[in-house]
Amino acid sequence: MYEHVDTAGAGPGLPLLITGDPDLLEETLRLADAAGVSLEVVAEAGGARSSWPAARLVLVGFDAVADLVRRRLPRRGGVVLVARDLDDATVWEAAGSVGAEHVAFLPDATQWLTRRILQAAAPRSVPVVCAVGGRGGAGASTLAVALSLVAVARDMRCMLIDADPLGGGLDLMLGEESAAGTRWSDVAAADPAADPDLLLGGMPRLRHGAVLSLLSWDRGDLLEIPAEAMTVALDVGRRDADLVVIDLPRRPDAAAAVALACRGPVLLVVPAEVRATAAAARVVAAVEQACIDPDVRVVVRGPAPSGLSAHVVAAGLGLPLAGHVRADRSLAAALERAQPPGPTGRSPWAAFCHRFLDDLFSDRQAS
């Protein structure tokens, strides 16, 4: 017998199993054990709420379907309904009610489910970096684009995700608003069972490099990214890219919470101004509410009208200083011409991004 160990809250990375059926639990744990994979196990859907958005795979026992529907957890990708010898219309109806992509009937699907658990438990170690502004117009979008372009210049495959519905569009900043390809509206409207590779394989590959993929907005009415759409996008990005960069809204929504659950660095861009620092404190509080113990670092942007130093801004927020970006008088005009900071060291933004990526990947190699 395999003992039911409740490990809720163990963090992203572990596949999640929701079941109170002792026979189904034992059989699924046996498959996971054969694959050398640990599962986060909860008996009821309520215990899965914190792990639900970011888990790379969610296995839902047939017995837990009614509870999951009742608690109205948001739809997301990567859900598999697990049942035992109940290949009937009731099971397929249950799968649709929880947005399951597949139904695994045990014991017939033993080999398939073992492979699926193994794939989910062994993701590539790809950093996810989020940028968020301490106030409107702080420069988070500029930083996200600059970081992506610098990564591409370093022969990295980068996925740039525009998660700020009120940011104006990173495609405009890059001069790629007419580029054909998948947008958030396509991902949000897709059938939960759609193949994410086919869906997100159609993202625009920008002229800035065939290895820079952009997931941004169209000019429609969609103002919120479903959490499950962000889960699908991150799953593809962490598997196919070397770096994922996300431009977040200042007030994190459900999709932003999924991104923050990746526990990557969050770069908070704050102009060297007193009011901007005060506004940034509220943004930090919102980020901390959306994610337990986030890795928030301050990027201070010049000029400093009152001489406020970068170290004082960071100290005032109680956060580590990631760096200071000096004033760039040509930036505003360049952005109007869809010419974001490029990979050359002449740009203050690019210079910061090169230093940041050096530190990011050296830290990962050391760990």
In a few lines, what is going on in this structure?
This protein is of the alpha/beta class.
What does this protein look like?
- The chain is α/β, with parallel strands linked by helices and 367 residues long.
- Helices cover 39% and strands 16% of the residues.
- It is built from 14 helices and twelve strands.
- Strands 8-7-9-6-10-11-12 form a seven-stranded parallel β-sheet, sandwiched between helices. A five-stranded parallel β-sheet has the order 2-1-3-4-5, with helices on both faces.
- α12 (310-317) links the parallel β11 and β12.
- α1 (22-35) crosses α4 (110-121).
- The longest helix has 19 residues, at 348-366.
- It is elongated, with a radius of gyration of 22 Å.
- Mean pLDDT is 86; it is low at 1-12.
The proportion of residues in beta strands is 15-25%
| Order of strands, widest sheet | 8-7-9-6-10-11-12
Q: Which class do the helix and strand fractions yield?
A: alpha/beta
Could you list the spans in which at least 5 consecutive residues all have pLDDT below 50? 1-12
Please give the radius of gyration in angstroms: 22 Å
Distance between the amino and carboxyl termini: 36 Å
Query: H/E order of the elements?
Result: EHEEHEHEHEHEHHHEHEHEHEHEHH
What keyword list fits this structure?
16% strand; 12 strands; single chain; elongated; 5-stranded parallel beta sheet; 367 residues; 7-stranded parallel beta sheet; alpha/beta; disordered N terminus
List the helices and strands and how they pair.
Elements: E1 16-18, H1 22-35, E2 40-42, E3 58-61, H2 65-71, E4 79-84, H3 89-97, E5 102-106, H4 110-121, E6 128-133, H5 140-153, E7 158-162, H6 170-173, H7 184-189, H8 196-200, E8 212-215, H9 227-240, E9 243-247, H10 254-260, E10 265-271, H11 274-290, E11 295-301, H12 310-317, E12 321-325, H13 331-336, H14 348-366
Parallel strand pairs: 1-2, 1-3, 3-4, 4-5, 6-9, 6-10, 7-8, 7-9, 10-11, 11-12
Helix pairs in contact: 1-4, 5-14, 9-10
